[in-house]
Design goal:
Shape: globular
Mean pLDDT: 93
Largest sheet: 8 strands, parallel
Strand content: 15-25%
Helix content: 25-40%
Number of strands: 31
Distance between the termini: 50 Å
Structural class: alpha/beta
Radius of gyration: 29 Å
Oligomer: single chain
Amino acid sequence: MKYSNIHLIYFSPTHTSAKIVYAIAEGMGATSMSESDVTCESLDMEEYIDDELTIIAAPVYGGHVAETALERFRMFRSAHHAPVVPVVLYGNRDYEDALKELCDLVSEQGFVPVAAGAFIGEHSFSRKGMPIAEGRPDESDLNQATEFGKKIIDTKLGSRAAMHAYPFFEIGLGAPASENTGDVLMGTIGWTGNYRFTFEVDNAGNLRVISGINPYASAYELKPNEWFVTPEFIFTLSNQGTGKASRDIHDWARNYQIKDGKGDRLTLLNNWESTGFNFNEKKLEELMKEAKHLGVDMFLLDDGWFANKYPRQNDKAGLGDWEVTHDKLPNGIPHLVQTAKDAGVKFGIWIEPEMVNPKSELFEKHPDWAIHLPNRETYYYRNQLVLDLSNPKVQDYVFSVVDNIMTENPDLAFFKWDCNSPITNVYSPYLKEKQNQLYIDHVRGVYNVFKRVAEKYPQLPSMLCSGGGARCDYEALKYFTEFWCSDNTDPIERLYIQWGFSQFFPAKAMCAHVTSWNKNTSIKFRTDVAMMCKMGFDISLKEMNEDEMKYCQEAVANYKRLKGTILDGDLYRLVSPYETNHSSVMYVDKAKSKSVLFAYDIHPRFGEKTFPVKLQGLDPNKKYKVQEINLMPGQKSTLVTDGGTFSGDFLMKIGMNVFSTAHARSKVIELTEVH
């Protein structure tokens, strides 16, 4: 954001605090700055500061803000909760409680801290022969302060790159981004590794967005005539808010980017929540029959089916050894594929071929295939290491995992491809002296394997998974039909997660499963939340009573009937869970003849007044029949408009009362054009 006026307040005996606050202001693109230097003397009377932004800085002594600085800062107040950035500088020990002290002080004075920072500065006690942070802040420190003043979104995790920061942004131009009005720029990057977005405003007020591979530890040497292709920067500009921007991105993704973007998606039953690692052929055969009884298209076998010398009985062994565990599944994958076919469902399987457990035959044979430091104690994230995909031999091996399974089982219908670890112990035995190329060449190797699999098996659908949604880039989705949004399947949390991902991804790319998480919510609520995306089940059906089972069967049938609208229709986000105690979205098909409305009560206040939800995207001149679906057996709709026929104009201007004051309740409403 551009700030037309930044006020700088500092106590700076050695001028270090002053240097830092000016560098931060420069990074923020300040067009004008005013200052209050209270180093030598205090103000005679209180001064009220209500500029667009204030930066206040002081040195640290003994882990605390200098008392003199605190006394002089108390002369500054804000009458209108002006934003402030508290900053402390330390040269000895650490800043300890100093930053909290300064934040508390400015809050007491009426300011609102919006960011805070601690930097290194030469201590005032520094002397020749006894230097304390001598020469600091240096050029590197000032560059860091300037970067702090800019807005940067980045990751340095290598693989599972989006575990902490997602590669998306949306910017309101001239005003904060809103759902249905205003100019909004939304963007992302097609790169599943380290990325960086830098946002800065220059002295002429122009916004610059710099998008690309994160340069961290990634100096890359090109040979003569060698090409380096940078990742795609994918963006859209909307003059009708984030809603229109999302619909434009969704259309582009389905038409041009996601694998089989115009095709169907399979509903499924996963075994993980019901069995974990503890299963055998008989138990899986029963689950396949349950999948058919539920009405889904496919049974998906998750982790735990492979390795023999070090069987996959937990997550500490077996990764890398991709042969069936003989004593657990004596008849192999072909038997499971055939058994699923006999039960009337398709068969899919989980793999994590980019990873290796140290306790595996693969690691015993090829320790040099794993990314790890040769001269330090190895750190294991989730008891595993990342295979070095910069190595062509490793790429061949990872490709062979899929190829061998498919060669043996040409009727296998689906892969869930996981990636549960960031790159740790960062060193490539293959690259040797070219370690700065690892982060880039590894990702290129991953994409190369994805591409080879897609070229040989173009009709094979696959789920992109990474401990949840830590892999969610559009370059990888060229080779995958969908991705797993999060391992957090609590339906309340999922409303927020799916709302966020819907900014950039269409429903057919976002997997959402009904699980046992948060049993304080009903099976109906959990199912209705999953139904707004690409729906699946990962739950023991034996947990359900007869009515719950009947409900799920009907919900699956409804979902299959309405998939065309939910997965390929236009999304309208109506009520945000971030702004209210409720949430609502709707999908409208391209012909505006069919719509599905989802409404959720999250944690309403007691006696809360609810208001009608005004629909969007309908044809005002058409008539629509309103019908609540996904009702529990024996339950009648409480929707006043249920069964009625209304014009699109009425539904968009007047709306419907779809919320209640009950906790964790949901409604799914079908609207059908009436001729």
